[in-house]
Amino acid sequence: MAGAVNMLPALRGELSLHPGPAEPDGAPTWTIRDPVRNRFFRLSWPAFEILSRWGAGDPAAVAAQVRDETTLDPDEDDVADIARFLVANQLTQPQGTQDTRRLIARAEAERQSWFHWLLHHYLFFRIPLVRPDRWLGASLPLVRWLGSGWFRAATVAALGLGVILAGRQWDLFAVSLVDTLSLSGLVSYGIALSVVKVIHELAHAYTAKTHGGRVPSMGVAFLVMWPVLYTDVNDTWLMPERRKRLQVGSAGIVAELTVAAWATLAWTFLPEGPWKQGAFVLATLTWVSSLVINLSPFMRFDGYFIAMDALEMPNLHPRAFAMATWWLREMLFGLGVQPPEPLSAARRHALVAFAVAVWVYRLVLFLGIAVLVYHFFIKAVGVVLFVVEIGWFVILPIWNEMRRWGQMKAAILAGRRVRWTLGAVGGALLVALIPWQSTVEAPAVLKPARTKDLYLPFPARLDAVAVVQGQRVEAGAELMRFSSPDLELRKAATAARIAGRRAVLDAATLDPLLRGQAGVAQEDLRKAEAELAALVAESARLVLVAPENGFVYDLLPGIAPGDWLSPRQALGIVVADAPPVAVAYVAESDLSRIAPDAEARFVPVIPEQGRRSGRVSRVDPAPTKVLADESLASIHHGPIPSRVVGRQVVPDGAVTRVTVTLDGSPPAHETMGTLTVAAERSSLVGRLARSVLIVLIREWGV
C-alpha cells in the first residue's frame, strides 16, 4: 500500500501550525490553519510527528525517522494515510497536470445547481459584508464592563427579581403572550430577533477579541429567510484552552439571557404602553431563542459548538453519523468491521444515540416547517416542501446507504446475520403490504338516542315528586308537580271576576236598567274566561310529565315538597327507551372504507361497563366543523386534536361524524370509548398512499 505514494507531496506554503488542546487521554494535538478557505484541521500526536519530518520526502524515510526519534512506531502505510488526508483536504501543492485535473474534477463535483443550493440553504445561509477585526479591537475597551464581575452579579440579581415579580403577574404575562400571537406581533418578534441577533453576534466577536482571537468577517445571515447579523469566529479553533473556546461559544447565549433578564425585570415595572410591550417581546423572544434554539446541539447553532468544545470532539455531527452508520451495518449484517475511530464502548454508544437523536430532530423540524408553511402561508408550497424534504432528507439517504450495501454485497452475503435481517425486512414488508387491517378505530361517545332535560317554566314550589332515580315511565306520566301561590291567587281573582260578570248578566235579564251594561259585561266576561284559561294552561305547565317512554335519571338531589326551585336548575333528564347510539369521529383517510350498515363494536374506557355491538346508521356528508362532543377534544384531555375558535371547539384535522345504533338498553350517562367498525381491508402502504392522494386532491383539485 505504501507504494501508492512514492514521494510525499509538498505542503502549501501559507498553512500555519498551532498548538491544540490535549486529548482526553492527555496526548497533545496541533491545529493546521488554512487561511485561504478559513478552515482548520486537528492533528494527533502521531500525525504531528510525521508532518514534522515531512521534508524527508519518502514515506519509508519519514516513518524511520519517527521510529528512531520518538516512542511511536509508524510504518509506511501510516505516512501514506497522512499524505492522502492532506491531498483530500487540498493542503498540498499540485505537482503536475494530474493534480490539476484532480482539482478541476473536484471543483466540478462540488459545484451545485441553484436547486441543490436552495434545498440545502433555504433554512440558513450567510453573506459576508465587512472585515470588522480592527474596529472591534478599537471599541473593545468601551464594552469590556459588560463582562465584569459586578455586571454579572447585577444581571443575576435582576434575573431573580424579574422571575419572582413576573410569577406574581403570571396571568397578565399569559394574556400578553396570547395578544402577541397576531400578524403585528409576529412582525414585532421578527424585528426583535434582528436586534437580539446583533447583540448575540457582537458578544461572540468581543469575547473572541478579549481572548486574542481574530474576527475575519461579519455579514448578514438569513434564518428561514429572515435577515440577522452573523460573525465568523472560526479562529477560536486556534485557542488551545477549552475554557476560552467555551466562553466564546457561549457568549451569544449569555448575552441573550442577559437581555432576557433585564427585559423581564423592565416589563414588571414599566407602565402599560409601547415600552412595556417592547420589553415583553424582547423577554419572551430571548428566553425561547436561547433555551430552545441556541442551546440545541442538534443543529449547527451555539449548542453544537459548545458541545464540541466541552467534549473536545471536533466535527461532532459527521463523526456521530459515521459511527451510527457503522453501528447500523454491524447490527444488520455483522460484518466485523472496525469502528470509524477507536473509542470506548460507552462513548461509541453515546455517539450513536446522539446521531439518531439528530436525525429524528431534523426530520421533525423540517416537516414542522413544511406544515407551518402549509397551514399559515401557501398550501401548495407546503406540500412541495413536505415532498422534497421526505424525498431528499429521508428517502435519498436511505437509497444511498442501500447502494453502499450493494457495493458490499459479497461481505454481507458471507455473514450469517444477513438471513435474520432479510427475514425481518421481509416480515416488515409483508406487514406493510398485505391488507390485513379490516377495521377502522375511532374515538367515540356512547349516549342515549334521545334525552329530554326537565326544567321549570318559571319559579315555583315543589308539591310532589312521583318518580325515583332510574324509574321507567310511560309517555305522559306525571313526574313532578309544582305550584305557584301567585298563580293560584291570580286564578282565584280571575274566577271572582267571571262570577261577578255572570251575576251582572243574570241581573240584566230581570232589570231593564242593567240591560245597557250587558254588552260590556259580556265582553269583560269573555276576556276573564280567556285569562283564566291561560292561567290554567300555565298552571298545567307546572306538572312535569314524561315526553316519551323512558327512564328518569339525574334527579336534583335533596329536593323535598315545599322547596322553591328556579327555572335555571336542571331537575333531571328523561332518557328515551330506545337503542343507544355511539357517535364516532373518523379520520378522512379511513372514511371511504366504511360501508353503510357496517357492523361495529363500542369498547368503553371503563371495562366494567361492557362492550356493545351495533351497526352504522348514519355517516355525515361533510367533515365536522364544530366538535359537539367536547369531552373528546384534546383541550379537555380527549383523543381528538382540537382548538378553541371563539366559543366553539374546532377539530384540527378533517374528521367526520359516524353514528352507530347499538344493542342493549340506553345508558344513564355518556361514556367515552373507542368504536371499532368493520371496513374494507387495507394495508399500511395503501393507507399512506390514500392519505397523500387526499391532500393532493384537496389542494390541487386533481
Set out the fold topology:
Layout: E1 16-19, E2 30-34, E3 39-43, H1 45-52, H2 59-69, H3 76-88, H4 97-110, H5 114-121, E4 124-130, H6 133-143, H7 149-168, H8 170-179, H9 183-210, E5 217-223, E6 226-232, H10 242-269, H11 274-294, H12 302-311, H13 316-333, H14 345-376, H15 379-407, H16 409-414, H17 417-433, E7 437-447, E8 451-454, E9 460-465, E10 472-473, E11 478-483, H18 485-508, H19 518-540, E12 543-545, E13 550-553, E14 564-565, E15 572-576, E16 581-587, H20 588-591, E17 599-604, E18 612-619, E19 642-645, E20 648-651, E21 655-662, E22 671-682, H21 684-700
What does this structure look like?
By secondary structure, the chain is an alpha+beta fold. The protein folds into 5 domains: 2-110; 117-313, no CATH class; 315-433, no CATH class; 451-573, OB fold (Dihydrolipoamide Acetyltransferase, E2P); 578-700, Beta Barrel (Elongation Factor Tu (Ef-tu), domain 3). The chain contains 21 helices and 22 strands. The chain has a 6-stranded antiparallel β-barrel. The radius of gyration is 40 Å and the shape is elongated. The two termini are 60 Å apart.
| Radius of gyration based on Cα positions | 40 Å
Structurally, how many domains make up the residues? 5
Question: Averaged pLDDT, please?
Answer: 84
What kind of sheet is the major sheet?
6 strands, antiparallel, barrel
**C-alpha termini separation:** 60 Å
- How is the largest sheet built, in terms of strand order? 7-16-21-18-17-22
Derived structural class: alpha+beta
Contiguous helical run count: 21
Unreliable runs, pLDDT <50, ≥5 residues? 1-5
Number of strands: 22
Proportion in helices: 40-55%
Strand content: 15-25%
**Which overall shape is indicated by the principal axes computed on the Cα atoms?**
elongated
Transmembrane segments: 149-167, 173-199, 211-229, 249-270, 279-299, 349-374, 380-399, 420-438
InterPro entries: MBTPS2
GO molecular function, one term: metalloendopeptidase activity
GO biological process, one term: membrane protein intracellular domain proteolysis
